[in-house]
Write a structure and sequence with these properties.
Shape: globular
Number of helices: 5
Strand order of the largest sheet: 2-3-1-4
Oligomer: single chain
Radius of gyration: 16 Å
Number of domains: 2
Largest sheet: 4 strands, antiparallel
Number of strands: 8
Length: 168
Amino acid sequence: MTSFVALLRAVNVAGTGKLPMAQLKAIGEACDFSSVRTFIASGNLLFASDRDEPEVAALLEDRLEAFAGKRIPIFVRSAAEMAEVAARNPFTDDKPSRVMAHFIAEPPTDAMLAEAKDVAGERMALGPRAIYVSYGEGIGKTRLKLPAVRHGTARNINSVAKIASLLA
């Protein structure tokens, strides 16, 4: 049995993609996952399953689409991978609330970082299927454009560490 988190993109953020966490939990239970729970209202489903990552992702995507009437992008990570993302944070010198792990579908590359535009003090680094960004002055003030994360989802390092701890 493997512990996983499904990180949903654009759920309950800035008035988009309303999904009550009780409903998200019920969807996880309907997939026959065990130890199903949510963490904060931004679309984090924690669970355990005997299935592999692609299978749990497909099950969730289908159930979420049936509920929402549209495809909701999700990024499934194992407990081990979330612990690795938390441990490999290269920006421990910044406030954890200002460091984001942007979860993406494929392994990140240096070329992805080279595509960044309007960099003004932000620092970036590659992680395990994630790109770390230290927003220094705060994400609300950034003009950074990083095409590689446009279709991903982000969590601040505090949330990443808490999710890793809950999955352990």
